[in-house]
Amino acid sequence: MSRELITLTIDDSLYKAKKIFDQHKIHHILITHNKVLTGVITDRDLYKHLSPAIGTAKETHKDIAALQKKVHLIMSRNLVTAKEDLSLNEAVLLFYDNHISCLPIVDDKLQTIGIITWRDILKILALQYRKKQKT
């Protein structure tokens, strides 16, 4: 689980989300309102709503206006979350059963503690397999 979270609030713009995705090697941003987790936006969600012409000579006023939309307009709201004491096997089942690519870890007040991504799960499984091969 990663505890170094990059979050946005529901009223932040798609421009700010794009800037974060461009600057960091992440694929998910947790969205909060009054410190409570309210949604998730993925890089795929963002790029589905933006023109490929953004930042090019073909960029239009409409393209620029799209960047001013608020993240709450495109974020996923039906979240699957988990508590910090979740086992690896339980996490794998949550990913599989719910077809999700990230699992926000929250406390009892739905405040974010961390995030687990499918890449984190794959890394753990690969390391466990490699360790098993050596024995």
Topology at a glance:
Layout: E1 7-9, H1 14-23, E2 28-33, E3 36-42, H2 43-48, H3 61-66, H4 88-98, E4 102-106, E5 112-117, H5 118-134
Parallel strand pairs: 1-2
Antiparallel strand pairs: 2-3, 4-5
Describe the protein.
By secondary structure, the protein is α+β, with helices and mostly antiparallel strands. The protein has one domain (7-134): CBS-domain (Roll). It is 37% helix and 20% strand. It is built from 5 helices and 5 strands; from the N terminus they run βαββαααββα.
Q: Give the tally of structural domains.
A: 1
Report Rg.
17 Å
Q: Based on the structure given, which CATH architecture is correct? A: Roll
Task: Describe the main β-sheet briefly.
Answer: 3 strands, mixed
**Order of H and E elements:** EHEEHHHEEH
Shape: globular
According to DSSP, the number of beta strands is 5
Helical run tally: 5
- The separation of the N and C termini measures 26 Å
- Overall pLDDT score: 94
Q: What proportion of the residues form beta strands (DSSP E)?
A: 15-25%
Structural class: alpha+beta
User: For this structure, what is the CATH class?
Assistant: Alpha Beta
The name of the CATH topology is CBS-domain
Arrangement of strands in the largest sheet = 1-2-3
> Percentage of helical residues?
25-40%
Low-confidence stretches: none
Name the CATH superfamily classification: CBS-domain
